[in-house]
Predict the structure of Lytic murein transglycosylase.
Amino acid sequence: MRAALVVLTLATPAAAAPCGGDFGTFLAAMQAEAVAAGVPADKAGEFFTGARIDQKVLKADRSQGVFRKTFLDFSQSLISKQRLATAKSRSESLNTIFDQAEAEYGVSRGILLAFWAFETDFGQVQGNFNTRNALLTLAHDCRRPELFQPQVLAAAQLHALDEFDLDTTGAWAGEIGMVQMLPKDILERGVDGDGDGLILLKSSEADAILSGARMLQHHGWRAGQPWLAEVTLPGDFDWSLSGLETERVTEDWAALGVAPRNGPLAPGLAASILLPQGRKGPAFLAYPNYRTLFEWNKSFVYVTTAAYFATRIEGAIPYAAGGPDPALSPEEMTALQEKLAALGHEVGQIDGILGAGTRKAVQKEQLRLGLPADGWPTRDLLDAL
């Protein structure tokens, strides 16, 4: 039964119920799509009956202030001696499962432990939003219906498999379980790690860990390769070479004076120099596996912090924090984005958050103005513009 439903999910076109408008009409359209996708009519009826819009979900979707934190602030708030000790304890107590994750999917335990820690504090805080209502709220909202309507269909199919109760709770954006996966990922890449015939990421550590590993493998994780390494850079380094847009093999970086702080650089791998807070802060070499982590979370600061924490779990020393230039305030960042957009740069949404588009635009303007082109926005840059 499960295999048949998964096949139907993969073959079904993206959901296209009209966003906005009457919610009851929207529910009826989504229910019809669920039946067309292979959900038995009675199960589809159960799933959609009684659903409602959750205004708290919409509020959370529009106020993601945590992403305004700098890398140093965010990492220091999430990484503690206690959390590191807990990660190592869980690594030991679930050693067989983590060995299986690496043997079957090639994913290092450090990465899985880091996301488990950050997403739910090792399963202790999984979110209290009703998942069905959260998904339907975001699917009905016209901001990102193309992302959430397929997730509604996947949740309905999980319900038909007895793997999604209507009172299931999780994060405001519909992620479920200890490692916070969306329903479509669970349906298509979930793993029954404990052999009970069900995939239950809320209650089964084995299911959650192995499902997370399989998801990363699906998105391109390379077995046996590193993801992030802290490095030191020479004072005369060409800062315009930093950023994810520039890749060179490690031997070329070494020739430019890039040196590791923890063990040797991985030979022959393409990598990028990351300066989360510019040339005066920590510096990292990001390998191809680092990029796959954005399939778990789109935030640069979150992903970099999780990747760094994973290296700490596996024995790396603490980063050299340095003394970065002060971060711009949200108001200053918004003003900077407006100036960059007026100059023709694609900065994405003007929201006061330092995202990938803004970093890239900042670096280009720094280079044009003769400032150190490290991608870190400063008040000097804002004044110069």
